Amino acid sequence: MIYFAVIHYKKGQLNGVEVLSWIIIWVTAIFIVAFPEILRTYAKTFFVTRVFDLMVLGGFILVISLVSAAYLKSKRNEKKLEELIRKIALKDVNKRNK
Amino acid sequence: MKIFIVVPAFNEAKRIGGVLSGLEKTKLPVVVIDDGSSDRTFEIVKKYKVTVLRHKINLGKGAAMKTGAEAAFSMGADAVIFMDSDGQHKIEDLPQFVKALKTGKYEIVFGSRNLGLGMPLERYIGNKLASVLVNLLFGIYVSDLISGYRALTRKAVEKINWESTGYGVETEMVVKCARLGLKHCEVPVATVYYDKFKGVSIIDAIGILFDVFRWRITK
Predict the structure, then answer these.
(1) Residue B53: exposed, middle, or buried by beta-carbon count in 10 A (0-12, 13-18, 19+)?
(2) Which residues of chain B make contact with A85, given a CB cutoff of 8 A?
(3) Which domains are seen in chain B, by residue range?
(4) Three-state SS for B177?
(5) Which of A74, A80, A83, A86 to mutate to test the interface with B (most CBs of B within 10 A)?
(6) Is the separation of the CB atoms in B184 and B155 below 8 Å?
(7) Distances from the Cα of A63 to the Cαs of A20, A33, A71, A85, B26, in angstroms?
(8) Which residues of chain A does B71 touch, with a Cβ-Cβ cutoff of 8 Å?
(9) Is the ipTM above a cut-off of 0.95?
(10) Residue of B nearest to A81 (CA)
(11) What is the 3-state secondary structure (H, E, C) of chain A?
């Protein structure tokens, strides 16, 4: 996934901050998978018995926030597209009325 | 009062010619919005003496109606009558809308189909249940919620300013009519169903149902 992030960065589809964020996310994920014990302290803090449960919980939070952000963004783009298409369609009528 | 007919169209090359031929006899100005059709709808409409606009891509009925109404108002319309492009609405019913608008008493005139006037039983039952639900949630009873045959004054369009881009637009109009306290009436209209697979599908209906609850909570 780091490879894909870098490829998209090279294609200019991701900026420096975005690619760095993704690299940090994936490196963190690799560490957590390799050394799950790192999370033991945090699991206790959040009153979660097993480390695995904490990882699932974290995964859910991440997925829900990403889906919400993607939903809002697609709604915004849909609205912009609608406005643009309608504006182009109405251009001829406005010309005729002038 | 200057009244325009607004016809949103999507892939109706087969039937729109007949609709426009009929509309020419009414002498009312007509605006057609081709909503990104992939067939010859646009080319066919251009042969008639109507104003034709085109959405480069398909946005949905609600968006096409909005574009059509905006175009009509920019050409001096005081009110618009929306009509479907598949020929299911009868030209003979138009005078009822014109008459109701010209009384000056109503801001919205809803066309209502019913069993005796050609509506299939399953659609009739679904429609009635939806009308009852909207009545319970918003306190307005319109016997045919999703009929596309309806007339609105310029003020009503501006006040309603619908956000639905798809088939939810008709229901949203009714909901906002109740919310804004707009004066409305219904006129009976005849309907001919040519195509079983066009128009509001069950999936669209479920989407509209969700929207109705969303509008109850949010607006």
Answers:
(1) buried
(2) 55-57, 59, 63
(3) 3-218 (3.90.550.10)
(4) helix
(5) A86
(6) no
(7) 19, 17, 12, 32, 57
(8) 89-90, 93
(9) no
(10) B59
(11) CHHHHHHHHHCCCCCHHHHHHHHHHHHHHHHHHHCHHHHHHHHHHCCCCCHHHHHHHHHHHHHHHHHHHHHHHHHHHHHHHHHHHHHHHHHHHHHHHC
Provide the shortest C-alpha distance from residue B125 to chain A (in Å). Answer: 33
More confident residue, B113 or B7: B7
pLDDT tens figures, A52-98: 888 888 889 989 999 999 999 999 999 999 999 999 999 877 776 66
Does B99 score more than 90 pLDDT? yes
pLDDT value for B196:
57
Name the β-bridge partners of B35.
B55
> Checking DSSP bridges between strand B30-35 and strand B51-55, what pairing results, if any?
parallel
Question: Minimal Cα distance from B32: which residue of A?
Answer: A89
B119-153: per-residue pLDDT in tens?
A: 677 777 888 888 999 999 999 999 888 889 999 99
The domain locations on chain A are 52-98
